[in-house]
């Protein structure tokens, strides 16, 4: 009996590991790519924000340039880990353009929501993250403005605490995205390397709008020009 139990446990752990690995591989691909598209589009519209980000990157970049003057500057994950403003820019983009714009939840047992609404076992609840990021009651009167400063403390040296049920780009509670830290690390590294080496310009005359999909892709995709710094 004990031997059978060990086999069952090992099998269960193997299945869970397989499922988690597949989730990392599939879930991160489209969501990260979509988020980066919206990030570079928004940064192209806000050169003042780009200047602040480059100023934050300059201390790290200066050492790299001194060591390899003719090489392109590539930032490593551990180098971008402490960059507060870069993360604020990332979160501000995810607030307005969450890669997964809609969450679907199934009610496990009868309950009463904080709003006072009754829900019953088996009910389906749809949560529009795209709408939540644009609600004045949640984010204030400037909810439609692209403003990374909303994520910073008063002195600008650290991130302000925002509960996950308010900012649900990575889900919330026990369903928090397992790949959150990996995704943030990947995006920060790509953003830092691209912004330091290139100016990002969006060609004029394009109609930029989201595509109706389970992933908030940009319809038709933007035409972007990269200009070497």
From TrEMBL:
UniProt KW keywords: Heme, Iron, Metal-binding, Monooxygenase, Oxidoreductase
GO molecular function, one term: monooxygenase activity
CC cofactor: heme
InterPro entries per the UniProt record, alphabetical: Cyt_P450, Cyt_P450_CS, Cyt_P450_E_grp-IV, Cyt_P450_sf
Pfam family, one: p450
One example of a Gene Ontology biological process annotation: lipid metabolic process
Positions bound to heme: 177
Coiled coil feature spans: none
KW Metal-binding (keyword) present: yes
Superkingdom, taxonomy of origin: Eukaryota
Family: Belongs to the cytochrome P450 family.
Protein name in UniProt: Cytochrome P450
Native species: Triticum aestivum
């Amino acid at each position: 009996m004990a031997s059978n139990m060990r086999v069952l446990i090992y099998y269960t752990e193997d299945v869970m590991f397989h499922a988690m690995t597949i989730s990392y591989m599939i879930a991160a691909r489209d969501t990260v790519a979509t988020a980066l598209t919206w990030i570079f589009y928004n940064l192209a519209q806000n050169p003042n924000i780009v200047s602040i980000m480059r100023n934050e990157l300059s201390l790290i970049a200066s050492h790299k340039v001194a060591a390899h003057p003719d090489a392109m500057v590539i930032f490593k994950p551990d180098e971008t880990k402490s960059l507060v403003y870069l993360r604020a820019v990332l979160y501000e983009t995810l607030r307005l353009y969450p890669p997964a714009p809609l969450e679907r939840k199934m009610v496990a047992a009868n309950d009463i929501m904080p709003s006072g609404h009754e829900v019953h076992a088996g009910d389906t609840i749809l949560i529009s993250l795209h709408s939540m990021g644009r609600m004045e009651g949640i984010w204030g009167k400037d909810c439609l403005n692209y403003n990374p400063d909303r994520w910073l403390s008063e002195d600008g040296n650290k991130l302000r605490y925002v509960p996950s049920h308010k900012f649900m780009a990575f889900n919330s509670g026990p369903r928090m995205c397992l790949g959150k830290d990996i995704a943030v690390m990947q995006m920060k590294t790509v953003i830092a390397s691209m912004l330091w080496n290139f100016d990002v310009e969006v060609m004029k005359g394009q109609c930029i709008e989201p595509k109706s999909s389970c992933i908030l892709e940009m319809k038709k995709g933007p035409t972007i020009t990269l200009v070497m710094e």
